[in-house]
């Protein structure tokens, strides 16, 4: 008898065919999240879940009587309670590597859009305001030859550093829990203590995963250390930043602007003050969202699922569960 897998995200036909060759599949094809109650109602009969947003906690694991593994379609896995997974001996996987370049591209888009005010100036042109020569009220700031400070030097951070060094001749520093001397040598980037990086960077990129330890790591004190000409970019997870502190820092001109792909609450609340600020570029968490990369991620997640159901070690087992 085939094992049963529930997929709570739309997946392309290619991935459906691949999975159906080995398992019995049930799919939730809507872009809205599957309601929690429905997930809990269905899950007891399934051996595997492929998801990207569902909260995998004690309640889920106690209900999912037959579950062998959860395959997350994302590199970040803050929706998974790792301790609860360990305790219930359920395997979980994610999708690193395949999205690194795509997310790095988007980050550079955010850096440029923020410093050169691209969305704001597009609005200016569209609204028919371009009836005189460009004066300093429309000027932005240079990106090239500035200093980029990366907090959290993982694979994506490295891809961004490469773009910054080779494409924009920027000075790049990073802060990470552990030093990466090979990366320092290869890319000519410098390790710097967090406070010094905060105080001296023109662009600060946050790439730290969200964990209990990193929750609100960038707080009011951190924003106060930044230069008043600094642009803050977050493409990691919203809750690594104390969003209220960031709003205050922007309102009080402690920093010059922000480029945000992620928020503490997603989808972002319509009355979030960040949406009203001209110096803030906001995106709907699209770091990896290209047709090619999302397909690759879904295929990777499917492969991880089939491996784990066969009792093989999946290609991308989450490191805390190894
Ligand atoms: C991830 O995979 O964690 C990214 O945030 C998705 O864009």
From TrEMBL:
InterPro entries assigned to the protein according to its UniProt record, in alphabetical order: D-isomer_2-hydroxyacid_DH, D-isomer_2_OHA_DH_cat_dom, D-isomer_DH_CS, D-isomer_DH_CS1, D-isomer_DH_NAD-bd, NAD(P)-bd_dom_sf
Tagged with keyword Endoplasmic reticulum: no
Organism: Gracilibacillus oryzae
Taxonomy, superkingdom: Bacteria
Any one Gene Ontology molecular-function term assigned to this protein's record: hydroxypyruvate reductase [NAD(P)H] activity
Keywords, sorted A to Z: Oxidoreductase
The keyword Methyltransferase appears for this protein: no
GO CC annotations, alphabetized: cytosol
Name of this chain's protein: D-glycerate dehydrogenase
Family named by the database record: Belongs to the D-isomer specific 2-hydroxyacid dehydrogenase family.
Domain D-isomer specific 2-hydroxyacid dehydrogenase NAD-binding: from-to ranges: 108-287
SUPFAM superfamilies to which the protein is assigned, alphabetical: Formate/glycerate dehydrogenase catalytic domain-like (SSF52283), NAD(P)-binding Rossmann-fold domains (SSF51735)
């Amino acid at each position: 008898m085939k094992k049963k897998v529930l997929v709570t995200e739309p997946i392309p036909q290619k991935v459906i065919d691949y999975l159906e060759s080995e398992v019995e599949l049930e799919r939730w094809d809507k872009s809205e999240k599957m309601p929690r109650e429905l997930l809990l109602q269905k899950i007891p009969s399934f051996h595997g879940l492929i998801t990207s947003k569902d909260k995998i906690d004690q309640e889920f694991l106690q209900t999912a009587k037959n579950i062998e593994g959860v395959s997350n379609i994302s590199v970040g896995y803050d929706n998974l309670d790792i301790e609860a997974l360990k305790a219930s001996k359920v395997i979980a996987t994610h999708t690193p590597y395949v999205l690194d370049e795509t997310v790095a591209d988007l980050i550079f888009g955010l850096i440029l859009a923020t410093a050169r005010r691209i969305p704001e100036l597009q609005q200016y042109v569209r609204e028919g305001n371009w009836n005189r020569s460009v004066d300093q009220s429309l000027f932005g700031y240079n990106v090239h030859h500035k200093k980029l400070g990366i907090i959290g030097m993982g694979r994506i951070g490295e891809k961004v550093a490469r773009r910054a060094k080779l494409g924009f001749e920027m000075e790049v520093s990073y802060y990470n829990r552990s030093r990466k001397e090979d990366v320092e040598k290869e890319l000519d980037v410098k390790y710097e203590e967090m406070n010094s990086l905060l105080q001296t960077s023109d662009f600060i990129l946050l790439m730290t995963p969200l964990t209990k330890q990193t929750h609100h790591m960038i707080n009011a004190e951190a924003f106060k250390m930044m230069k008043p000409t600094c642009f803050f970019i977050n493409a990691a997870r919203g809750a690594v930043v104390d969003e209220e502190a960031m709003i205050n820092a922007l309102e009080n001109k402690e920093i010059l602007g922000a480029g945000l792909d992620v928020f503490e609450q997603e989808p972002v609340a319509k009355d979030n003050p960040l949406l009203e600020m001209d110096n803030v570029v906001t995106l709907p968490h699209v770091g990896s969202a290209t047709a090619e990369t999302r397909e690759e991620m879904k295929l990777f997640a499917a492969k991880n699922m089939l491996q784990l159901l066969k009792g093989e070690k999946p290609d991308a087992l989450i490191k805390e569960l190894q």
